[in-house]
Amino acid sequence: MQKHTQIYLDSFGLDKSDNNSFVPSEISSKRAVDIHHIIGRGKKGEDRIENLMALTRDEHQDYGDEKDYMVLLLKIHQRFLDLNDIPYNEGYFNFYINKYQNQTGLKDVKKI
After folding, report:
1. Would you call 87 helix, strand, or coil by DSSP?
2. Domain assignment present for 82
3. What range defines the domain where residue 98 resides?
4. What residues pair up with 34 in beta bridges, in sequence order?
5. Does residue 26 carry a pLDDT above 90?
6. How many domains does one find in the chain?
7. What is the DSSP letter of 83?
8. Which one of 8, 50, 58, 77 is separated from 86 by 20 to 30 angstroms, measured CA to CA?
9. Is residue 111 part of a domain?
10. How do residues 42-99 score in pLDDT, each as one tens digit?
11. pLDDT classification of 105: cutoffs 50, 70, 90
C-alpha cells in the first residue's frame, strides 16, 4: 500500500487490511478508488491529510490536476474533514486557497 493511501485510511480510522471496505468519494459519495494529492506530488504535494482526497476514477481524471478546480477541491476536502472530525492544519488550507484564488482569479468561491 502506498504511503499516502495509508495516511488517508489511518486518518479516517479505516481498516487497511480490508480491501472491500467502502471509502466514499468526497465529491459524490460514490466508491472512491483513488487517493488524490490535491497540490500534486513532490516537494509541494506532501503526504499529509490536508493534501489527500478520496475520489472516483472519473473525478480524478476530470478535476485532479486542473488548476481551476484547486480552490474548490481544497474547500470540499476541508469541509469533509470538518464533517468527520478529522484534525488538520487550517493554515495549510488558507495558504493554498489564497494562492490558487490569486493564480486563477477565482476569488468569488465562497466557503462551502
Report:
1. coil
2. yes
3. 3-104
4. 55
5. yes
6. 1
7. H
8. 58
9. no
10. 656 689 999 999 999 999 999 988 888 999 999 999 999 999 999 999 999 999 999 9
11. confident
